[in-house]
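MODEL INPUT / OUTPUT PAIR
PAIR INDEX: 1
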Amino acid sequence: MTTVSDASDVKSRRLSDADYADNFSDVHPPLTPHEALVEADRCYFCYDAPCMTACPTSIDIPMFIRKIQAGNPVGSAKTIFDENIMGGMCARVCPTETLCEEACVREAAEGKPVKIGLLQRHATDTFMEREQPHPFERAAPTGKKVAVVGAGPAGLSCAHGLAVHGHDVTVFEAREKSGGLNEFGIAAYKTTNDFAQDEVDFILQIGGITIEHGKALGRDVTLDQLAADYDAVFLGLGLPGVNALGLEGENARGVIDAVDFIGVLRQSEDLSALEVGRRVVVIGGGMTAIDAAIQSKLLGAEEVTIAYRRGQEHMNASLYEQELAQTNGVVIRHWMMPKALEVSDGAVSGVTLEKTMLNGDGKLAGTGEEVTLQADQVFKAIGQTPDAGPISGIDLEKGRIRTDDHRRTSHAKIWAGGDCIAGGEDLTVVSVEDGKIAARSIHQALMG
């Protein structure tokens, strides 16, 4: 077992201002108009295109690419927004490498898919930068009122869909800022220049949507109250809790929830003021773990290690994201689970990991072999948990809200979507689709 140092090394301003600016610049710079035309030319415009089937929001990908090829990026953006009002953000953060681009026939034939995500960004950015009229026209007011809880991707998508149909929507958001996952939970280098708020403003242009910030379900409003005061309710609550490691010393200085770390970083106006350890260990294998690890490195940490209890093929983070971490100097150690936190003078100084394996029954088991890594900071990224307290009275499944295929809950007036529902995913694109499906179902129910 290695020796753990007692000296904690956590500080700010590890880098120059130029380094911070460079490190947190756009990870995927946008295509130039010429590059977009060249890339669009690579599309085969397949009939029954597999890329379109792979898109959770069913965007007509061949159609929007053909419009770019024809020199009509504004029309291309309208095709995208028809299915995904957050097409701009999804172009930045979607795991296209495991969705549309993985399904691209050029990927199968050549190992080099059409750059669908960058083409989608080219179209949507062009539309928004030219300050076009909103691509949707609001229908005549119906007189119906709908409450939406949560101004994240699912809630905003649902609110927009309902507003288009002429319903009046009030969104209750616990934070003082809208955007949810897009604003607080995604790596800063993936969505630069305050794009998340630009997109919120773009969505609200449809009219008929009011957002009340600082209003939390269970604290400021209740589900029973909303169901009584509104014709329908949509819940896009997200997952507010973070799983604990369950180890002694978890409350020591330097043991941090990765979700909170990413949120603080995203809201920081001065990245150099953020403190980061010289040696960082991240526990987990999903996108939150990857984002926390990479951003620790970009803030100036010298040694960053991700410890994951299973193998590479089991990680929720895609191979592309894992490779992105490694190219940024992050070490990923598989088949390692945390066994103990080393604490000195109230601060974490290391983490002991036990090597793991799958036993004969296919279950994870420790091997007894341990290693201790020095760590000034340990980030917990082992999943988020729901809060069932404010949502009593509707059926749950393993703590999450049970819905049907139309995102309707067991309560006749309540729908839900996003990662707060059973089977939900923490992907912007999936949440947008949930909100879109729920909006259609709510509209049908309200109009008889």
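PAIR INDEX: 2
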Amino acid sequence: MIGHRFIQFDPNANGKSRFEQMLDVFMQLLTYTNGDAAEALQWMNELDRQYGFTDDEYGMGDFIEDLKQNGYMDENPVNGDLSITSKSEQSIRKRSLEEIFGKLKKTKQGNHQTFKPGQGDEINPETRPFQFGDMLEQIDFTESIRNAQINHGIDSFTMREDDLQIRETDFKTQTSTVLMIDISHSMILYGEDRITPAKKVAMALSELITTKYPKDTLDIVVFGNDAWQIEIKDLPCLQVGPYHTNTVAGLELAMDILRRRKNPNKQIFMITDGKPTCLKIGGKYYKNSFGLDRKVVNRCINLAAQCKKLKIPITTFMIASDPYLQKFVQEFTEMNQGKAFFASLDKLGAFIFKDFESGKRKTVY
């Protein structure tokens, strides 16, 4: 009789080829190199020297050739420059989504569902007694028959209106979201890379919306001295610049985008690590990096109030914990009646995704 057999564990026998294992590392590096394929490959060569990714059977040249053959990278035939393809951009977004969602604990909370039940798409585990006006499709016959048997006995089976149970359904809402990302110089100051986690969250959120909630919209706005909109495909290449923080310009652009959206549910997510320090008045910039300038702050507070009137909640994710900044965020949030999170970099994704899910819930009567 053969009992348990133990074999030597082979860490490479995980179903992934050498190319797929190296591709995982390469995709991570692309996020840090802002989509620069050549720089990412230089990092790969350095890591290969230290950790021995390759051997006599599979070298870096083979890996580069596989990247081209599999559509992850293009080579300019004139000058030999390497660049990533749309397939790489989508792969980075998918990996960011898996990385962030993999850290989230599973809950019983629904997918963009409502807090209160109503006629909708998703079945709710809760039931209630039948009421006049309910549709026949909502009747839970299993529970209704069970009630009839309890109330009237099995021998002479009858079913009455009082026995009927209704299975509620939850309504899934459509939401237009603008994600604002601070790209001022402080996002890389003090030896801390804050822009890369912000990019990862943006890429993951965009992949989630485009695949799971295709009726939703997501627009990305970046703001420094000015604010401008970028495409989802440009997220891996996003870089911090020598900018101040013109939060007002970012909010004005976000509001302008949401005015054009037809969805009834609109929201703004803002990722920033510092105080607003800049305004553009006419053709000139008004800047003050020292403390909180009331001229700048008041404009921000006024925009928060305007968003409240337009029923656009603002959720601020502050990657800083300075007391005076917390006070500003609190004032800003109270004026908008939105929400604020003082999130560490490693928890930023969890905060945003959980808030995005809960923010999609809408009461249906």
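PAIR 2 NOTE: The radius of gyration is 26 Å.
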